[in-house]
Amino acid sequence: MIKVLEGVRVIEQGxxxxxxxxxxxxxxLGAEVIKVERPGSGDPFRAFKGGLYSPHFQTYNRNKxxxxxxxxxxEDLALFDQLIAxxxxxxxxxxxxxxxxxxxxxxxxxALNPKLIYCSISGFGQDGPAAGRPAYDTVAQAASGxxxxxxxxxxxxxxxxxxxxxxxxxxxxxxxxxxLHERHRTGRGRAVDVxxxxxxxxxxxxxxxxxxxxxEVMTPYSRPSVSQSYVLECGDGKWIALHMSSPExxxxxxxxxxxxxxxxxxxxxxxxxxxxxxQEQLIDLLGERFKQRDRDAWCRRLEQEDVPHAxxxxxxxxxxxxxxxHLQLEVSAPHPDGGEWxxxxxxxxxxxxxxxxxxxxxxxxxxxxxxxxxxxARLVEES
Length: 383
What we know:
The chain is of the alpha/beta class. It has helices at residues 18-28, 55-59, 74-85, 98-101, 106-112, 137-143, 163-186, 196-203, 205-214, 222-227, 248-257, 272-277, 279-290, 295-304, 322-326, 368-382, and strands spanning 9-13, 32-37, 64-68, 89-92, 117-122, 191-195, 229-233, 239-243, 309-311, 330-334, 340-344. Helices cover 40% and strands 14% of the residues.
């Protein structure tokens, strides 16, 4: 593992996803990340499936250490202050005002360490009419206009993973990296603010740009129609995805693969614009064709014709694909309770070297003893 952030110390007081994901992204780049948690229970995500090591918690907390502190207690607040004095970055995702009540507000911490980069993550921002409202993933997706692009109006259900939470963590890490770069030049820390609403509005930029430029309000099928994307069930009940885009060569390849080389002579499908206008007819035609062979057979045909496609895998299948295995996407580390802990590595390689080394998420308070021993040693040195 090439640790491009080696020497950067991050104190993360995050819970659930946004703050922990920001911390994990920095840890994946080699930063030392110390997660400050509530004594006894820790990050609430720990207990989502009983115990204190749920898969929800594991997802966003690898490559970290855990320390338990109650900053309302003077002794623990002093230990927290020592961590902050030696830190480069602090991350919290409390509702506005909570950090101040815990002794972890921006003004206080940056007084302790003027070079500190203080990252605040919120639902709706630090001020304004909605600042105090609670926010979780679906709330931010809805408020940003993004959720409406995912919901099937014929069967309205919330679907998919926690995109707003995860993406807000990405944007927070992005802001922190910018502030770290600037600090090399100026020597000064920064306050970095990001809200879930702002993050999702920015991620939803395509929909807003279409509205600003054309007055178009996009729907769940707007982009798939224009990009000519399809999901099709094969004869064995497995599914395959196509993304045909605009090059005619891909469409001719598809026509050859399904055994209808003259498909593009059909007036309905002759041009990109006509294929968009008649997408439902294309879906019906392709749907019938793809049920005639199993998925592996279709993959071989489509690859032979250079058609953009992929099997629609689930999580038990994706990492077994030959390309995923070649890229060594699955990595492992010793599990805190024994055995093997498995995860998906960081997607970023440096100097063509993928990051294959990882440490499992910490058990609650695994750094407590070391932190307190270091504090005692410091007192001896100062006396």
